[in-house]
Predict the 3D structure of the following.
Amino acid sequence: MALFLIATKAWAALHTSSMAMLGSLADSSLDLFASIVVLIGVRVAATPADSEHRFGHGKAEALAALAQVVIISISAIFIGIQSVRRLLRGAQTADAELGIGVSLVAIVLTLALITYQRHVVKQTKSVAIATDRLHYASDLLLNLSVIAALALEQFVGLVGADAVFGLLIALWLAVGAWRSSSHALDQLMDREWQVDQRQRFLDAAAEYPELSGLHDLRTRTSGTHHFVQFHVWVPEDWTVREAHDRIDRAEEELQKRFPDTEILIHLDPEGHTDREGLLPAHLTEQA
């Protein structure tokens, strides 16, 4: 689809001399590269853990998402610069009907794509595809902006409308890039789970008496896979085997409830904390 849109928008850009259409062409051209990056990132992220990557390859998705952010940012800068130049020159567009027609076709195709991507993200929770979907979703507004720019400048006679819309498109892309980068950076920096996700896990763990001494909870996410580790106080009169068997049973039950989460539990004698002082107080209190 990206290849088809590149061809049609290039044809329209040449015939209309529209800055907004040129910006849309640049965006579609970068979409192709971004989609290739996503394909590689998702494929690598799905590779099972190996001896050199014991926690898997999930962060490849976050890297792919960041690559898209760079692409979107470059596109925004390019469109912004060209729009300012056109605004200063006072150049006008031509053949608005052609540009509007191409933009309408692009809207229909993009709607079909993001609808399918929404289904895929819902099924896989993929960060890279979610970022890719955000980029294509922004294309809907971009194509509508092209239509508005061409109509205002050629049919209403509002000179400079095309360049102004080009600047607005550039700003929209820059804001989208900023928002998309935050989630990818959270994964790369091993940010703790969101409060609601963390609380759901704690509520589930609280249902097992063996885990009543849970403390020093740590969480992170890599791609579509989650990791959680914590310490549990066990009675001092339990044998190693008894403690192991009881905690293992609780862990197996939790694993069934959180199938995409790797759970690691460390046992401590009741009242003992060998990581005291390493975690901020508010995290220890939440756990």
Remarks:
- The CA atoms of residues 101 and 147 lie 9 Å apart.
- The chain has two domains: 1-189, 195-285.
